[in-house]
Amino acid sequence: MTDTRRRVKVYTLNEDRQWDDRGTGHVSSGYVERLKGMSLLVRAESDGSLLLESKINPNTAYQKQQDTLIVWSEAENYDLALSFQEKAGCDEIWEKICQVQGKDPSVDITQDLVDESEEERFDDMSSPGLELPSCELSRLEEIAELVASSLPSPLRREKLALALENEGYIKKLLELFHVCEDLENIEGLHHLYEIIKGIFLLNRTALFEVMFSEECIMDVIGCLEYDPALSQPRKHREFLTKTAKFKEVIPISDPELKQKIHQTYRVQYIQDMVLPTPSVFEENMLSTLHSFIFFNKVEIVGMLQEDEKFLTDLFAQLTDEATDEEKRQELVNFLKEFCAFSQTLQPQNRDAFFKTLSNMGILPALEVILGMDDTQVRSAATDIFSYLVEYNPSMVREFVMQEAQQNDDDILLINLIIEHMICDTDPELGGAVQLMGLLRTLVDPENMLATANKTEKTEFLGFFYKHCMHVLTAPLLANTTEDKPSKDDFQTAQLLALVLELLTFCVEHHTYHIKNYIINKDILRRVLVLMASKHAFLALCALRFKRKIIGLKDEFYNRYIMKSFLFEPVVKAFLNNGSRYNLMNSAIIEMFEFIRVEDIKSLTAHVIENYWKALEDVDYVQTFKGLKLRFEQQRERQDNPKLDSMRSILRNHRYRRDARTLEDEEEMWFNTDEDDMEDGEAVVSPSDKTKNDDDIMDPISKFMERKKLKESEEKEVLLKTNLSGRQSPSFKLSLSSGTKTNLTSQSSTTNLPGSPGSPGSPGSPGSPGSVPKNTSHTAAITTKGGLVGLVDYPDDDEDDDEDEDKEDTLPLSKKAKFDS
């Protein structure tokens, strides 16, 4: 459906009593089976999706406002509005609604009567309208009482509104106001105050249009000056006519637009300043007033956007060097207010607004303005720039990259922003903080776009580090040429803290760009000079910068830190801090603790080798002793690489067998007789025995013990393999042929207690070749005497030969036991 008469915007009222734009589409009415009745349907003009499906309820109050709006409530706190492009479309849908509800289309509201009492319903049937007293001075009190009594009842409010509207009563009341003022009739003026305030609470658009017309609005404000609660009347009219001045920085040729601006300002003034703050019960009664102001603002922005001559003149005068300073300041302030005004718009309207400004050349204009000397003008330009960055940072990035191809670095827009941040004269650096936030948004990769043809992140960061980073780091490099900061006043420290905050953000998000810059420019060494600042917050910023670098665990950074001995300033600051338990102390300890816990080997060795003597006496935390222990373990592994590799192999092999540990221990328990335990000796699983031995043996003995245990376990695995008729080619046997025959002949008894295939008779790992006490029951083969070299280690050939020799030299008694 492309009929512009039916083109509408759908709005919903949010919790803040602001209208949210839900989209633009085309409205129709028809019977919906699911809702069992005639309904309003709005389909989006972009994709045809359903924006609104609302049944026309016979009891719902619909309200027609300003000829192009229809407003109603779906639920207690859910208000809807349709804003039509054309009046004809609004009238057409309004007729459909009135037809369903059985109302005359000439009315502007249909009222729900569900909450009315029986008496009110009877009154409604018996008296079709409300008769107002004649508008005379003597009857003002009667009129005020009638208005006050009608407000609690929706039905009476509706009747009163219709009566006021149909009889032109408001204009008659305002004529009485002039009479009362001329006669200084204070009592009459107080009654008029109550009457006009009550009319506002009727919440009726048609009445507002009369009251806010050019001829009536100032008299309405005059009536509201005479609040009976005040001893003296307010002087609102005097303020609006004499103090508040309307400035046209660019002449507005459209009289309708000019009148709309005046009207909106005055109605906003009434809402904010004239009317008393509404109570909780009255708040919803002014919802139509909020709506009136909101839609007026939308209309003003739209009319200004469409006036190309106005905007063209605005930007032409802004950038014209011949424009005097006062005029330019007014122009910038207008543009700032215009942008601030746009923040109340809904997303779609705001998109159109900023696209229009971008097409008119707002960014080049801002570049010119920011280069001027006037502080106030630059401040306003900064505010405008912040609106643009928050709205669309990609648009700003694209502009600055394009201008870099034509201009020098000094006059680039982004460098002007950095310079204003550095040169902020405010002692609290309020402007600098705002600008730093904008720069952070611009360099944040999270809001950068990636397309098939180009990556904004790569292009913009390459541009930023080439053309802008040297401007950002200039104050840092200038202040850290020696061992201490050359300037250490509070304002300089604050500025450097801001610069460090942005650099820390870059370290976290920019990977190789910032890494190359830090290493090539030796930035970290310069930053750590600030550890000597008298301002603790600046020293902590420097420490946080280094901590962020260490947290990346990047060996390029680590080698740079070690080569330049960049722990020295940190250790000095730690020692100078002494025994004070403060944030500096905790932050430094946390950094070293991170190195220890994460086992960053290169930094651990560097710290211990160069700074251990300075740190060894710190015993209130175990961080530094833990670092020393890590360092010694590293040295031990470096001195015994074979031992380290053996440990790794054994550790991995034991890990592979862990899945069978529980099964082996259960089998040992069930295969062990009471006679297998002599002299109170308990059966201990190989893993448990290893744990006990580990507690008392030195590293070399521990390794040998594990090796023996591993060979014993693997020998048992081999015997089980042979008994089942399978043999792994990676195992070597060195038993006599008699033993092989004997083992084969016993294959049928492998599950008996004490048999060679079971782990029920562990040998003594401390004595290779020995046989345990229970040899009368079984020949338990758990030592190196009968089976060696189950796994071919490249460096164990000599051990294999020695073990084979031991087998040959076994005592005859032991050989007999193997052969029996």
Give the structure's gist in a few sentences.
Residues 142-633 form the Serine/threonine-protein phosphatase 4 regulatory subunit 3-like central domain. With 820 residues, the protein is α+β, with helices and mostly antiparallel strands. It contains 37 helices and seven strands.
How many helices? The count is 37
Q: Could you tell me the mean pLDDT?
A: 77
Major β-sheet profile: 7 strands, antiparallel
Reading side by side through the largest sheet, how are the strands ordered?
A: 4-3-2-1-7-6-5
Q: Alpha-carbon distance between the termini?
A: 103 Å
By DSSP, the count of extended strands is 7
Beta fraction of the residues? 5-15%
Radius of gyration: 45 Å
What is the percent of helical residues?
55-70%
Characterize the overall form: elongated
Uncertain runs: 112-127, 653-660, 673-697, 717-820
What structural class should be given to the helix and strand makeup?
alpha+beta
